[in-house]
Amino acid sequence: MQEEPIRVLVTGGTFDKSYDSRRGELTFTTSHVERILAMVQCRREVALETVMLKDSLYFEPGDREKILERCLGCPESRILITHGTDTMVETARLIGRQGLRKTVVLTGAMVPVTVTGSDALFNLGFAFCAVQALPPGVSIGMNGRIFAWDSVRKNKDLGEFEPLTPPRAPGRSGAA
C-alpha cells in the first residue's frame, strides 16, 4: 500500500530568507524547502506548494485565510507548514479552531537556512517526523518541542516557544 504524500505549504518567514549582499538585508528569492528535502535524501513523497514568500509580520488581511483555504482544500491528511515565527501562533489558532480531521504542524526558524548555525534544518526534519506521528490536530513543532495550537506562545525575550501556563482558579493563591 502506497503512503499518502505529505502536503508541505511554504509561506515564507525567516526560514526561507536569503541575505542580499547588494542591499544588505534579508530578502526572499525562492523557497529552500525542495532543495533541503533533496539534500537530506527525504524518501517520503511530498506535495510541495509555495503559498507565498512573506515575513509573517507583514501578512495582509486574507493571508492567513489563504493558508487555511489550502489546508481545507488539499486532499492530503498530513500537512506541514513553514511559517514565520513571529505570528505562527495566530495562524495555528485560525487553523486549529476549524476542527480539521487532518494533522497539521507549523514550523519555522529563528535563523535563515542560508546562515551558518540556522535551526531551520533541524526544525524542518523534526516537524516532518511530527506530522507523520501525531494524531489529527494542529501543532507547532519548534526546536525539538511540540505544542498544541491552543496552549503555546512565542517568548520574544527568550526567542523560543513555550507552553501557556494554566490560569489559576479565581480566589486561589499559589500557596498550598
Report the CATH C-level class: Alpha Beta
Outline: globular
Element pattern in H and E: EEEHEHEHEHEEEE
> How many domains, in number, for the residues?
1
Taking the sheet with the most strands, its summary is: 6 strands, mixed
Walk me through what this model shows.
The chain is α/β, with parallel strands linked by helices. It has one domain (6-158): L-asparaginase, N-terminal domain (Rossmann fold, 3-Layer(aba) Sandwich). Helix content is 23%, strand content 28%. The protein contains 4 helices and 10 strands; from the N terminus they run βββαβαβαβαββββ. It has helices at 33-39, 63-73, 88-96, 120-133; strands at residues 6-12, 18-20, 25-27, 46-54, 78-82, 103-107, 137-142, 145-148, 152-155, 160-163. The strands form 3 sheets. The protein has a 6-stranded mixed β-sheet, with helices on both faces. The protein has a two-stranded antiparallel ribbon with strand order 2-3. Helix 3 links the parallel strand 5 (78-82) and strand 6. Helix 2 (63-73) packs across helix 3 (88-96). The termini are far apart. The model is unreliable at 171-176 (pLDDT under 50).
Please give a handful of descriptors for the protein shown.
alpha/beta, 176 residues, 6-stranded mixed β-sheet, globular, two-stranded antiparallel ribbon, Rossmann fold
